[in-house]
């Protein structure tokens, strides 16, 4: 769930994600600990989502196709 709030989450968490693969020995070393601490730090400093106050106009940019929908 939180991956969408952290830019580059999949690249950052890759060492930890590999631990979930079948046949991989679970070895929590210094690299995984550093990645874990970095993810925690990014979560604590991540921007939060909020509804606009409605006092000013705003523009929503979106894109749609037959396979998906995206908006910023």
From TrEMBL:
<dbReference type="InterPro" id="IPR041577">
    <property type="entry name" value="RT_RNaseH_2"/>
</dbReference>
<keyword id="KW-0511">Multifunctional enzyme</keyword>
<keyword id="KW-0695">RNA-directed DNA polymerase</keyword>
<dbReference type="InterPro" id="IPR050951">
    <property type="entry name" value="Retrovirus_Pol_polyprotein"/>
</dbReference>
<keyword id="KW-0548">Nucleotidyltransferase</keyword>
<keyword id="KW-0808">Transferase</keyword>
<dbReference type="Pfam" id="PF17919">
    <property type="entry name" value="RT_RNaseH_2"/>
</dbReference>
<feature type="domain" description="Reverse transcriptase/retrotransposon-derived protein RNase H-like">
    <location>
        <begin position="28"/>
        <end position="72"/>
    </location>
</feature>
<protein>
    <submittedName>
        <fullName>Reverse transcriptase domain-containing protein</fullName>
    </submittedName>
</protein>
<dbReference type="InterPro" id="IPR043502">
    <property type="entry name" value="DNA/RNA_pol_sf"/>
</dbReference>
<dbReference type="InterPro" id="IPR043128">
    <property type="entry name" value="Rev_trsase/Diguanyl_cyclase"/>
</dbReference>
<dbReference type="GO" id="GO:0003964">
    <property type="term" value="F:RNA-directed DNA polymerase activity"/>
</dbReference>
């Amino acid at each position: 769930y939180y991956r969408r709030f952290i830019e580059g989450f999949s690249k950052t968490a890759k060492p930890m994600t590999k631990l979930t693969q079948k046949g991989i020995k679970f070895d929590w070393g210094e690299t995984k600990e550093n990645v874990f601490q970095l993810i925690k730090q990014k979560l604590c400093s991540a921007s939060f989502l909020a509804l606009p106050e409605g006092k000013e106009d705003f523009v929503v940019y979106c894109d749609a196709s037959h396979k998906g929908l995206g908006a910023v």
